[in-house]
Design goal:
binds 4'-deoxy-4'-aminopyridoxal-5'-phosphate; three-stranded antiparallel β-sheet; 15 helices
Length: 446
Amino acid sequence: MEQSMEQQDLELIWHPCSQMKDYETLPPMVIDHAHGCWLYDIHGKAYLDIVSSWWANLLGHTHPVLNARIKAQLDRLEHVIFANFTHEPAITLARRLQKLVPPGLSKFQFHDNGSAAVEAALKLCFQYHQQTGHPERQKFLCLTEGYHGETVGALSVGSMDLFSLKYKPMLMETIHVEAPDCYRCPYGKQRDDCTCPCFGKAEEAFARYGKEAAAMIVEPLLQGSAGMRIYPALYLKKLRKLCDGYGVKLIADEIATGFGRTGTLFACEQAGITPDVMCLSKGLTGGYLPMSLTVTTQEIYDAFYDDYGTHKAFLHSHTYAGNPLGCAAALGVLDVLEQQQILLKARETARWLTKEMEGRFGKHEHIGEIRHIGLIHALELVADRKSKRPFPAEKRLGYQLYQKALARGLVLRPLGDVLYFNPPLTIAKEELTQAMEVLGEVLRES
Ligand code: PMP
């Protein structure tokens, strides 16, 4: 008998971020096609993609504008080496983004995934100090619970044991500053009117390591993989000042937060800061194609600009750097965002969603907090609301609920025991209502 697609997949494919044994009870959904916020499997079942296919899909699947742009580009130029060569879509994209990113960011490097953009950012800051008279600046600072990707450099500046513990001996040593934890704030503060006493931990770390640090990397406002942990813009403002005071570069990893996910085009805007380096990916191409950018300042660029023989060039490359199809998709994204006022509409949808979520789940005995920024809304499940005691990790409650939601056609892929919506910005209120109804059902059942 012929094997099913699911069986063939399991025979051959090793999926990302998965214990493959789990697939014995939950075989992969074989997706045949998609449209808007919906995925359709080969058996005709529909799934609402409430997590934007790993936070990447920005405007819905098979979007007519993006599809048309990529198809048109495909017949013009599919790819070309990006050293010594260039093309109009990349130039236009850089020109347009320059007007949108925080002021002062003006040089664009092209890479092909988020982790690669982070690697380039780290190497860039390291080399910058080597070439500007500070070879002693070799350390990197980062926040606990941070996540920046899974290549070796990116893992080193990440703090999630789940991903990095096994690899510790092969990672570089970095300084992990205790991150703000607004839900379980040890200072008893509220997120919305907080003076950030927790910033003292950053000040302590800078007092100790500030003179030997090359850069500090953060996910601005939202530590996504840590469970959608949201912290105040004031923390970023303070961090910008602290970095300036010590001559430490600030890297903003906007891979998950960029392109309207937090309500503004970039999270840094809410703090009114310009980082020295910004990493972009995911929503950049609407979630269509693997492309990323490491964006930086003229000042950093100048430290690499010299005669070839001085060996100051940034000799970092990825084969698919500047892929024209990705650039065409990204230009389509910018057009749709602008012409259809997507951010404005998404902000309105977000306000409505907050009210609805709070009305439906705000008093649930096992939901410790509903936190939100932009359209991202996360619910943290706890065994006890008062003490905020989590459920035992072995229970894998989030995963259990995920399975139940999947059976009902909702992709509620959790982060531990944090369930969240991070949908395409174009999602309709009726679709969100459907998602909340499924969420309500699976919570009632558990
Ligand atoms: N940084 C952040 C903040 C991310 O959320 C991610 C991906 N989830 C990455 C970096 C890594 O991007 P990629 O998976 O494309 O390597």
